[in-house]
Amino acid sequence: MSQNRDTVRNITGMELGGKITVVTGAAGGIGMALAERFHKGGATVVLADRDQAPLDVGMELGGKITVVTGAAGGIGMALAERFHKEGATVVLADRDQAPLDVIALRLNTQRPNSALAVAGDLGTEEANATLISTAEKAFGPIDLFFANAGVGSGTDLTTEEDVWNTAFDINVNAHRWAAKYLVPGWLARGEGYFCSTASAAGLLSQIGSAPYSVTKHAARAFAEWLSITYGKRGIRVSCLCPQGVNTNMLKGGDNPAGGETTNVVRVAGVVLEPADVAQVVVDCIRAETFLILPHPEVAQYATLKASENERWLAGMRKLQMRVFGV
Ligand code: NAD
Known about the structure:
There is one protein chain. Helix content is 52%, strand content 13%. With 326 residues, it is an alpha/beta fold. It has two domains: 2-55, NAD(P)-binding Rossmann-like Domain (Rossmann fold, 3-Layer(aba) Sandwich); 65-324, Rossmann fold. The strands form two sheets. It has a seven-stranded parallel β-sheet with strand order 5-4-3-6-7-8-9, sandwiched between helices. It has a two-stranded parallel sheet with strand order 1-2. The model is unreliable at 1-12 (pLDDT under 50). It binds nicotinamide-adenine-dinucleotide.
């Protein structure tokens, strides 16, 4: 083991940052330790061993300190529960304390001191700063932060200013504020994982809602920018972009008069359960995939949008007519 450390020290002296390195026997033991240390030193590592599966493993959640916003229900609650099942400590954040306390109690009953509920309006910089400092005081440095809280409000050009502002504050600015307080510590540690929930609407569009389309594009753009800017310095970033998921937000789009056929998200494709989305998220975090697409067809739509934009726009106008009649 000491020989291994000496090897690392010697090679680190040659400056690993930006080097392309190959480590054989990297599925475990000394090989894995070397590969991880080289990576931390800024090297690109090619891992080689007999079997593929153990080499593909990225971040394991067991023992990690995680924060999930929008965790009182829907996708956020499913993410927090799934991370906890993987062995992570979870800090649950949302607007109101009471529903978070119920979830935290359930998780702490399963494993003592493994969950904490922190309430606040995350559409403010102060609440994001407080969430991060509270989580770190309770459990130590945050390994993974999932900015998932969001609103689906707003429609067309008549949308009120305060609705636009709220959409920007929670769907975009909250991500920016969280990153502002997380990234300096992560750069100092040489690692950290930022995940955000945008939407398929952040790659395509949201028929019927300008604020949702615009803010979700901005959320995805911000996640991409983080990955580009800090990806070589140990910070991993993923962006969840689902279509329909069976949550309160989706149900809020059902028009009581017209039934589910007036909900464009339901018309556009399959509606997944939050637990299914959480499973895809955990798989993608393991693989450290940037785009998390629980509906794989979204990748095809995005390709069509980029390569045949006029055709994609025509198709979207047809869908708009089908759902809204104008
Ligand atoms: P949801 O309504 O169950 O969850 C959203 C959560 O965010 C709620 O618990 C809400 O209280 C919280 N929240 C909103 N504003 C907040 C604020 N200012 N401060 C603190 N918490 C706040 O719906 P969901 O579908 O689970 O939504 C989670 C994320 O998934 C959202 O970002 C949403 O845009 C995105 N999304 C949802 C779908 C879908 O079909 N359900 C599809 C694509 C993306």
